[in-house]
Design brief:
Strand content: 15-25%
Number of helices: 11
Strand order of the largest sheet: 5-4-6-3-10-9
Order of helices and strands: EEHEHEEHEHEHEHHHHHHEE
Distance between the termini: 26 Å
Helix content: 25-40%
Shape: globular
Number of strands: 10
Oligomer: single chain
Largest sheet: 6 strands, mixed
């Protein structure tokens, strides 16, 4: 396998399409998606355009949907949720379709939608993602970080590194065997350095500091946890769908 890490959607090429792609937005879209599906949500559909989200969600009865919108770390008005995984309780999300739009994460999810297999990953479900990748054995794999408004983010890179480390530990491969670009090596190095201080790394990160300013320290603590959920969010929509839909692999 050749594994490539891209720090932002803007830095991700459009061709050639990889056999498998993984979108990462630790703070907080993919963590929220994974938590919602773990709590029983039926699906999560990702939108960049909040207006389109509102229009599309109208086709689903109000008691069967939740609109989750976030801009600049804050909940969008007229949405029932923001982008906090802590809001994704079974009582709130079970059996519902979630329509999600965030500042950064939904752009990464849309960037990978052309891949034959597209997965949403975070630290909280890292191991189940690794196990799935080992089972699939893709020839080429992209890990696409969301970053922050086009810029590099520590939390997405360390998650990419955690996935790489999980692959190496499981397969006994070496980094030289799988690294397709320098970013993959750098991501693994970052994880190796900070694997026992993931929360501290997030507290130092620029996005983490934004969330701390919004009094979201509990979100940081939750998002920094490794391997606590066994949910694999897989894209279920067709390539033609501009707003990709993800569901738990266990329900497919």
């Amino acid at each position: 396998m050749q594994l490539f890490v891209y720090h932002t959607p803007e830095l991700t090429p459009t061709e050639p399409v990889p056999n498998c792609a993984v979108a990462v937005d630790v703070l907080r879209a993919t963590t929220t998606m994974t938590t919602a599906l773990s709590a029983g949500a039926k699906s999560v559909q990702a939108f960049s355009d909040i207006k389109l989200l509102m229009e599309t969600s109208e086709s689903v009865p109000a008691n069967q949907r939740l609109r989750a919108g976030e801009r600049g770390g804050k909940q969008v008005s007229d949405c029932e949720m923001g982008n906090s995984p802590l809001d994704c309780t079974p009582e709130k999300v079970s059996g519902r379709k979630i329509f999600l739009s965030t500042t950064n994460g939904t752009r990464a999810l849309q960037k990978i939608k052309a891949a034959p297999v597209a997965v949403a990953a975070a630290l909280v479900n890292r191991q189940v993602v690794v196990d799935y990748l080992v089972q699939k054995q893709p020839e080429t794999l992209w890990i696409v970080g969301s970053g922050w408004e086009g810029s590099y983010s520590l939390e997405d890179t360390v998650c990419a590194g955690a996935i790489i480390d999980g692959w190496l530990q499981t397969t006994q491969a070496t980094l030289a065997d799988v690294a397709g670009n320098d970013e993959a090596i750098a991501a693994h190095t970052l994880y190796f350095q900070w694997q026992n201080q993931l929360l501290r790394l997030m507290e130092l990160s620029s996005h983490g500091r934004r969330l701390l300013g919004l009094e979201r320290h509990e979100d940081l603590k939750y998002c920094a946890q490794l391997d606590i959920l066994d949910v694999l969010p897989l894209q279920t929509s067709s390539v033609e769908e501009s707003n990709p839909i993800f569901a738990s692999a266990a329900n497919l």
